[in-house]
Amino acid sequence: MTGGRIRARIRRSQLHTFACLKPRSNETDEPHTVEGPGYSRIVHCNESHMHQKPPLQYRSNYISTTRYSIISFVPKAFFEQFRRVANIYFLVAAICSLFPVSPFKPVSMIAPMAFVLGVSMLKEGLEDWRRFMQDMKVNSRKASMHITDGIFSNKHWKNIRVGDVVKVEKDKFFPADLLLLSSSYEDGLCYVETMNLDGETNLKVKRSLESTLCLDSEECFKDFKGLIKCEDPNPSLYTFVGNLEYERQIYPLEPAHILLRDSKLRNTAYVYGVVIFTGHDTKVMQNSMEAPSKRSSIEKKMDYIIYLLLAALMVISLISSLGFFILTKYKMPEWWYLRPDQAETCYDPENAFASGMCHAMAALMLYGYLIPISLYVSIEMVKFLQAIFINQDIDMYDEETGVTADARTSNLNEELGQVDTILSDKTGTLTCNQMDFLKCSIAGIAYGVQASEVELAAAKQMALDLQDNSMEDAADYPVPEIELKTVVTCKDKEGNKPCIKGFSFEDSRLMEGNWMKESHAEEILLFFRILSLCHTAVPEYNEQTGKLTYEAESPDEGTFLIAAREFGFEFVKRTQSSIFVNEKYPDAAKPIQREYKILNLLDFTSKRKRMSVILRDEEGQIFVLCKGADSIIFERLAKHGRVHEENTTRHLSEFGDNGLRTLALAYKKLEEKDYVAWDNEFIKAKTAIGGDREGMLEKVSDMMEKDFILVGATAVEDRLQRGVAQCIDKLAQAGLKIWVLTGDKVETAINIGFACSLLRQEMKQIFISSTITDPSGKDEKKTSLLLVPEKAVKESIINQMTNATQMIKLAKDPHAAFALIIDGKTLTYALEDDMKFQFLGLAVECASVICCRVSPKQKGLVTRLVKEGTKRTTLAIGDGANDVGMIQEADIGVGISGVEGMQAVMASDFSIAQFRFLESLLIVHGHWCYKRIAQMICYFIYKNIAFGLTFFYFEAATAFSGQTIYYDWYMILFNVFLTSMPVIALGVFEQDVSSDICLQFPALYQQGPQNLFFNWYRILGWMANGVQASLTIFFCNVLSFYASAFSSNGRSPDKAVMGTTMFTCIIWVVNCQIALTMTQFTWIQYIFIWGSIGSWYLFLVAYGMLSPTWSEEVYMLYVEVLAPSKSFWATTLLVTITCNIPYFFHSSMMRCFYPMDHHVIQEIKYYKKDMEDKHLWTREQSKARQSVKTGFSVRVESKIRQLKGRVKRRASSLAIMGSMIGRTEPAAAAAVDDLL
């Protein structure tokens, strides 16, 4: 591999980049102290058999993310089922049905309960089986492991043990936590990508001990032996303490020597390592938590509804028992036909209290139909079917990877519609880590005509505003040409991928060597050379494309090198001391390779915010080339180096307003004697031993990085994952708050915030820091946390949060928006009990929250704080193992099923291929599922109350005899078959609006977080509807048959006729009620509703034709008695209409006088007003957006306000000028055109 050979000659550990901050460990270093609690692990290298028995037996490398095991499934599943209060009641009732006091046959109670529990447990088992299969995919990955005598063989990850020697090849994941022994590079370096651990995509450099560099082939491990004593398993990703005993020497081990599980080997052919931690002992698994059992807020609220229904059941049972006690004691002796002298215990007037207690038990079972036993199983079935539709949604299918959405658990479908806060990872979730070089400023002149997304959207909106005459003051004046011209240029290419990845720059003045014709060609030359020379990247030859690719520490560096190559300055080679660039200068047709000697490299850090390289060109001239944040560069400019500062500052502001991330470029020339003097000081600082070494290096670097001459600035567009900005904008319009939790550095996170419009230029950024700085803000020197008492640091953080909160409260500008930015060190203090709620209060007041440099554990703690502190539903989304903690902690966990491992997906409740699909998952499916489940539960409560209370009324009318008016099979069929299918259709197919309308009117989503369809007002309303329906059904039937014959032959109705007629009325009433509830009808709904009604009549006919031995009182009841009776049909029609009139009237009143958003939209769509009146439709869309301060739309509106203000100011200036010099109106108009 050519690229590998190039890098193999570079001992990068000798460069300042890799050596200046920490000296390299060697044989003379003192070993660590690894004794005492927390340091008991002993690893016998290449002797894994030593760890198969206690006391050195450690956990295997097998991992599991399942909730159940074969042994624990039954007890755990039963525990989960009986967490539901209703199931406990039905269990007691089923046991009681075995005793003689039961009014029902045992089968009528036991069969439904067994069916409900069986279906629910089967569903849980199937979902956990899917998790098990995904675990098996990971555990079955293969790695090359030393077997014996220098022979390596592929083994499954799950079979790797502590002490094994493993060989990992390029682009493979590390199967366990390893000690790096050697690599394909001669100095033992390797490059590791830790995106799965900390979210960072820039490559980390790991190194082996010099004493193990010789172990660079398989044969070398034939006799390899060693002993590692180190820390016990812990979740800290950035620390490691241990010693290696090898060849009678002890060597200290550091984090730089450790390769962590789930990180990936990059740009290195292979490495050898010995296993230290396996399975759940690895640091990545230590950062994960046990898969929690989650319940939706609606399901939790259902418990309270069941409590209420149980209380109602107890009350009416008490009333019934009291009535039975009184009648038994005082009236039963008079009822001679009941033979009270031979009465049993349950009907003994001489022991009325015992009889009352027996009746109480019977009543608790008799009125049990108030509790909807089939509710849970129906919800389980509905959620399962909803999950299938989520999985098959074509709008959430990623064509590039072929990955669909996956509802890994269906328990939380409705919770998707109630999310208040989204906590998102950055890398791999929001970004695809791809930059595009778009614009630049050189010598005070802006270059680049390609428009950014913000520019394009703002100009489009301005054009629409002009067409609609919405710009009142600027209606007579044209829009600035630069914006419209840019839109036209880019509009034709919208949706087309740039021909060169990372380079979308368009400007003929700089391309094809035309820059040499510019008046300031020398400064342009310096600009291009800074791009091609000021970096730490390594070139690699791509055999497939025949071109060089660049492995850079950050995406920005790679983009700058691509841009430099396209401008004619191609970086081709790096050695230990030189950089080689092919320059198309002075002849654009004949590139010349030039060598630049690297003298020193001052690397970029989040504290320095700049990077410098000192090099010597072929003519012997020494240059210092620097790139960094504009605020840092500008304050280091020489007086004669500020010629272009004003114009460059203006360009930087414009670039930032357009959503681009910027860096300033500067340089200076050095005399030989000045460099030699500085280099001596630098060497002294670099070789210093002591705690102040870093400060000395920073001071010496400051001496060099000053008196620069400004060259220009770059503007790159951070390529988010496709559709991320639009998705975040839509989520913001839906009223959702978005927090970004990332392990990346502050600057990168802020840039991503700007790119996805969580941040914008005029937004006030609140930085909460644990570093104590000079209050004046002018002194850059910062005091180390080690030198400041912890109490002082905490007081400083509290003061910062207090001041920030006060500033937000005093803000008067209605457009004012605040963003909170905090790092991991500060978050450690902010999450402590004494200040975490103050931090949360401040964060809630801010429009955006970005937490940087956070550990996986901190992600989980922040998520828990938001969930418990706000009492609102939280959703966490991420793609790496470092996101598992927050995914499991949140109410809903969403995993991105990308290419970087499956840890996040395995721990998630839902998985999607890209962040943009979150829009459909929440705003469409979340909205639908919430309303469906809410309406479904309310309807269940209604129909069970309407049915169950008729038992009580009949009891009251029959002296609380404990008899039922309905035949046993009627009661069994009511919930299981006759009313179950329509409610399932409601839960699966109901749509108040279509998916397109959901996305066009995102504020509809707020019906879920505001809980408009499952609040106590609506629940109690449905209960009241059930009570009135039960009263109407019972008393209408009683009054219909009380004083009149039932049939033409004068026959009066008996209990069977009365019960069957009443039950027929119930079937009609509840099925017509669900028809009124539905807003969308398909053939499925028609079949289920009419099928349920028709199946009741078919049952009466078919069951009535059976032998009287089986059919009993129902024998030929329908054919011979009910069907011929006009009273039967009239009563059914009358009761059905009467019961549903109150709901119909209430719904009509609400739609007419208190319409909700979806009511208005439904009416507009029904009358096709959206087609006839576009302005009405657009106006309703604008109303259906939450008032937010983040998102792409807000950023565009801010841009439009700037443009409008600019037009107004220019128009006012021209008007004043015209009045002063007496111009005519046409002349003034012409002047306006010229100026704009």
From TrEMBL:
NCBIfam families: ATPase-Plipid (TIGR01652), ATPase_P-type (TIGR01494). It comes from the Eukaryota. This is Phospholipid-transporting ATPase. It is an enzyme of class 7 (translocase). It is found in: Membrane. The active site is at D425 (4-aspartylphosphate intermediate). Its cofactor is Mg(2+). Residues 905-1155 form the P-type ATPase C-terminal domain. It is a multi-pass membrane protein. Belongs to the cation transport ATPase (P-type) (TC 3.A.3) family. Type IV subfamily. PROSITE patterns: ATPASE_E1_E2 (PS00154). Signal peptide: none annotated. Residues 43-110 form the P-type ATPase N-terminal domain. Keywords: ATP-binding, Isopeptide bond, Magnesium, Membrane, Metal-binding, Nucleotide-binding, Translocase, Transmembrane, Transmembrane helix, Ubl conjugation. GO terms for cellular component: plasma membrane. GO terms for biological process: phospholipid translocation. The keyword Transport does not apply. It comes from Trapa natans (Water chestnut). Mg(2+) binds at D425, T427, D879, D883. The keyword Manganese does not apply. It catalyses: ATP + H2O + phospholipidSide 1 = ADP + phosphate + phospholipidSide 2. The chain crosses the membrane at residues 85-101, 107-126, 304-327, 360-379, 936-954, 969-989, 1019-1044, 1056-1076, 1083-1106, 1126-1145. It holds the Pfam family PhoLip_ATPase_C. ATP binds at D425, K426, T427, E557, F604, K627, R661, T742, G743, D744, R853, K859, N882, D883. GO terms for molecular function: ATP binding; ATP hydrolysis activity; ATPase-coupled intramembrane lipid transporter activity; magnesium ion binding.
